Amino acid sequence: MDPYSSSSASSGSSGPSTEAIMDQLKNQLAQAYAEEFLETVRGKCFTKCITKPGTSLSGSESSCVSRCVDRYIEATGIIGRALFSSQR
Fold first, then answer.
1. Which residue ranges run through the membrane (predicted)?
2. DSSP codes joined into one string, the chain
3. Cβ burial, residue 14 (10 Å; 0-12/13-18/19+)
4. pTM for the complete prediction?
5. How many angstroms separate the Cα of 17 from the Cα of each of 23, 27, 43, 46, 49?
6. Given this model, what pLDDT does residue 83 score?
């Protein structure tokens, strides 16, 4: 028996279904997107809004970060909708 064979393979099962593989890929893409999103927001908003890094945020820094994140979320939504609508 080779290392890629299993007893379930001989009974007609060929491994994970296409649907299971697609679900796994979707989850991996969603995780990668979330990580990229957070890294981009962290980098851009921190650079733009945090002028004097310290142990806490000032009120103006906090509101700047909030507005920056909101704008970034809005922009990615607009881009996503434009991409998906052009694929139809």
1. none
2. --TT--HHHHTT--SS-HHHHHHHHHHHHHHHHHHHHHHHHHHHHHHHH-SS--SS--HHHHHHHHHHHHHHHHHHHHHHHHHHHHT-
3. exposed
4. 0.59
5. 10, 15, 39, 43, 47
6. 82
More confident residue, 19 or 6: 19
Give yes or no for residue 67 having a pLDDT over 70: yes
Task: Identify the pLDDT of residue 7.
Answer: 46
Do residues 50 and 61 touch, judged by C-beta distance below 8 A?
yes
Report d(CA 60, CA 56) in Å as an integer: 12
Q: What confidence tens digit (pLDDT) does each residue in 73-82 have?
A: 999 889 888 8
